[in-house]
Amino acid sequence: MNLDRGRVSALLGSPTDQEGSVNDPRTREEYGVRFNEKWIYRGADGRSVERVVLWKRYDLVGVFRVEPDGRAEPESLPGA
Which burial class, exposed, middle or buried, applies to 1 when counting CB atoms under 10 A from its CB (0-12, 13-18, 19+)? Predict the structure, then answer.
């Protein structure tokens, strides 16, 4: 994926929440992807998660649409 942080933010807006940071040395794995920063986009109710964007340092490593039942589907963004 070759989108940078500014382009993803322009496409999706600012995330509701964020876990980790670009300089966080700890990596985690979710949805089969290793990352150190997670952008979370919540639904209108403010609690449900609709989308997550995963970064490993400055590299975009995954965008996932989260279904109400918790399943996550990879999502493509224009330019990815």
Answer: middle
